[in-house]
Structures are given as structure tokens and as C-alpha cells.
Amino acid sequence: MNKIKACLFDLDGVLVDTAKYHFLAWKKLANELNIEFSEEDNEKLKGISRMASLEILLSLGNMELSNEMKLKFAEKKNNWYVEYISKLTPNDILPGVKEFLTLLKCHDIKIALGSASKNSMLILNKLNLVNYFDAIIDGNKITKAKPNPEVFLKCAEELNISPKHCVVFEDAEAGIEAAINAGMYSIGIGSPSILKKANFVVDNLSYMNLEKLSLLK
């Protein structure tokens, strides 16, 4: 077994279900711009940066905007999103998260957050999860969006652990690609048909244990 020394977690869809709030905020912006936007379209925005998401939304409406207007609309969307997530409580933590993080802590396995979200500290504080993490790398500390491996490589660097001893937990295809590009193991959270490049896939973290980590070879 290639001993796993660190577990790196995406935030949205892995630790907490904020995808619904992203959808509501993007849908509100799409309505304002008279662009048709469905939950299926929202899938394309998972795991990528705010500006990259806005580009996809605009392309759905064949719309061109100046950089100044793009920044204005991205900020507008984020303000709506922050309004929604400000109401989060520890009850919004996804199944198995606290139990698995506690298990990792007990066995001296390092824990990091690797997320494109610029609101990760707000969310982690609302969920009372901050103290579980040895490193937090988010959208405020990176310049390249997944599938670029920058976010996960920075996690490994801050933890001082080789990428080959890290495993990434992701619910998005771009995130699994980023883990592979970083030379790390990956475990998908969600649908095996979407996350087929992951080492394996589970429904949520309540299905995770140390035995499953030991399957990564």
C-alpha cells in the first residue's frame, strides 16, 4: 500500500451541499440577462471559478460583455450566493463528514481543503468545521481553476506531504481531473458515470473508512 498521509477535500458537494444556492444565484442572474438556464446547465459550472462560470452562462445566451460588466455581474451573483449561505448551520453538513474527519484526525492523517470557492472560510465557520483542517487553500489563494492542479499542489505543499501520498475527495469531473494532474489519488463523491476517472466513487462520506483508503495502491 502507498500510505495515504493526507486527505484533500473539495467543499461544495463534498462537505456541504451549496450547489443548490449556486444554482439559485446563477438562475437569478440568468433571468436578469434573459438567458435560459437549467439545472443541467448548472452541472457545467461545478468545480470551476466564478469568472469561468460566468463565461459559460454568457455563452448559453450568445452574449458578449465588457470585462467591467462581467466583474459587475459576477459580484452581483456572489452577493446573492453569500446571502443564501449566510443562513447555513451545522445541520447542513453532508452525511458522514464529521465522523470521517474525526477518524482521520484520530489516525494522524492530515486534512486540507482545496476549493475554488472564495467564500470557504465563511462556509466553514457557519458549519463549525474550521478546526478540522491543517491547511485551507481556496479561491483567494489560487489563480488557476480546476482541472489545473494548482489548488491541490498548494495543499500538499502547505502540508509538506508528497502528492503521491495524497487523496482528493471531489464531486466534479474537473476536480477529479485536477487530482490526476497533481499526481494524486482521487475518490469521487456522487455519480460513477460522471466521475469515472476517479479511483473509486462513493455516494457520500458516510461510506468512507480507513479500509477503503487502504484500497488505494
TrEMBL record:
Enzyme Commission number(s) from the entry: 5.4.2.6
Q: According to its UniProt record, which protein family does this protein belong to?
A: Belongs to the HAD-like hydrolase superfamily. CbbY/CbbZ/Gph/YieH family.
Q: Quote the InterPro entries the UniProt record gives.
A: B-phosphoglucomutase_hydrolase, Beta-PGM, Beta-PGM-like, HAD-like_sf, HAD-SF_hydro_IA, HAD_2, HAD_sf, PGP-like_dom2
Q: How is the cofactor bound?
A: Binds 2 magnesium ions per subunit.
Catalytic residues of the enzyme = D10, D12
Q: Which UniProt keywords apply?
A: Carbohydrate metabolism, Isomerase, Magnesium, Metal-binding, Phosphoprotein
Q: Name one GO biological process term.
A: carbohydrate metabolic process
Keyword match Disulfide bond: no
Q: Which leading EC class covers this enzyme?
A: isomerase
Its UniProt entry gives the catalysed reaction(s) as:
beta-D-glucose 1-phosphate = beta-D-glucose 6-phosphate
What Pfam families does the annotation carry? HAD_2
**Name this protein carries in UniProt:** Beta-phosphoglucomutase
* Matches recorded under Gene3D superfamilies: HAD superfamily/HAD-like, Putative phosphatase, domain 2
Q: Which residues bind substrate?
A: 10-12, 26, 45-50, 53, 77, 115-119, 146
